[in-house]
Amino acid sequence: MVGVPMIWIVDPFAELIDVYHPNGVRHSLTASDEITAEPVLSGFSCPVADIFE
Questions:
Q1: Which residues are 16's β-sheet partners?
Q2: Segment 16-53, tens digit of pLDDT
Q3: Phi/psi of residue 17, nearest 5 degrees
Q4: Is 0.90 surpassed by the pTM of this model?
Q5: How many Å apart are CA 46 and CA 43, to the nearest integer?
Q6: Containing H/E element for 37?
Q7: Which residues contact 20 (CB under 8 A, 6 or more apart)?
């Protein structure tokens, strides 16, 4: 992930999003979570459930 500020891996079958950060931190998000894109897209947020509708 050199030079990449964030990666989203979207699994439409499991309805999960794994968010990877360059410091090695990974978050797994489910339909009950809200996804953000800080600091890449300041102010962006979206319910994960909306992505899978």
A1: 11
A2: 999 998 888 999 999 999 999 888 889 999 999 999 99
A3: -130, 125
A4: no
A5: 10
A6: none
A7: 1, 6, 7, 8, 9, 26
